Amino acid sequence: MLLVAALALQVAGLYAPTVPGPDTGLPGLDKVGHLLMFAAPAALATLLGARWVLVALVVHALVSEPLQGWVAPQREADPLDAVADLLGIAAGVALARALRRRSAIMEG
């Protein structure tokens, strides 16, 4: 259920007609948002053993930027957002694996 919620938030954030959240003026802050929107479901999918979700996340990361311009024309496609998405997936998988190793060490 948590994975479904994370995926729903990701879709809502990526395809909202306007950029969600406050405009802080900090350069690159949207990249952090992209990273987190992909890291959370990637970590959850890894912990749940749902590898197919990871494949879907990679495909979504690659097609979401061009698709954004079509679904929400007032938003601009940015290839660096796709890079942040892919880095988020890698970070989420790494975090989940580290948590698993730590849990195994503590149990063992």
What does this structure look like?
With 108 residues, the protein is an all-alpha fold. The chain has one domain (2-13, 28-107). The chain is built from 4 helices and no strands. Helix 1 (2-15) packs antiparallel against helix 2 and helix 2 packs across helix 4 (79-107). The longest helix has 29 residues, at 79-107. It is elongated, with a radius of gyration of 15 Å. The mean pLDDT is 89.
Attribute tags:
108 residues, mainly alpha, 0% strand, VanZ like protein
Q: How much β-strand is present in the residues?
A: under 5%
Count of runs of 4 or more consecutive helical residues? 4
For the sheet with most strands, the description reads: none
Domain module tally: 1
Q: What is the SS-derived class?
A: mainly alpha
**Shape, per Cα inertia axes:** elongated
> What's the alpha carbon Rg, rounded to whole Å?
15 Å
Please give the alpha-carbon distance between the first and last residues: 29 Å
Task: Outline the fold blueprint.
Layout: H1 2-15, H2 29-48, H3 51-71, H4 79-107
Helix pairs in contact: 1-2, 2-3, 2-4, 3-4
Nutshell version of this structure?
With 108 residues, the chain is an all-alpha fold. It has helices at residues 2-15, 29-48, 51-71, 79-107. The chain has one domain (2-13, 28-107).
